[in-house]
Amino acid sequence: MIVNKNINPERDLYYLGGKVIEVLSVFTSNEIDYFDLFFSVNKSNKISLKLYSLVLDWLFILGVIKKGNKGLIIKCF
Fold first, then answer.
1. What is the rounded CA–CA span in Å between residue 27 and residue 72?
2. Cβ atoms within 10 A of the Cβ of 31, count?
3. How buried is residue 73: exposed, middle or buried, by Cβ count under 10 Å (0-12/13-18/19+)?
4. Cα–Cα distances in Å, from 63 out to 18, 27, 50?
5. E-assigned strands of 1-77?
6. pLDDT tens-digit map of 15-58
7. pLDDT digit string (tens) for 2-13?
8. From CA 16, how far away is CA 59, in angstroms rounded?
């Protein structure tokens, strides 16, 4: 579920998606490695790999990121 009133907002896809976008905006390159982004996000917000993957799925659906070659993530902003 995307939004659930029974959990902390720090675990919602909306909130974490915003945090991933913040981290993505710091990178100067448009192509970012999947795990480099994960470790950068994990420094400020402790997040599991499973939840991180769900957040990336959400951002992909929104058109914020695209899938690149060899595990790279391409930011679309």
1. 13
2. 13
3. buried
4. 14, 18, 20
5. 31-33, 65-67, 72-75
6. 999 999 999 999 999 999 999 999 999 998 899 999 999 999 99
7. 556 666 777 788
8. 10
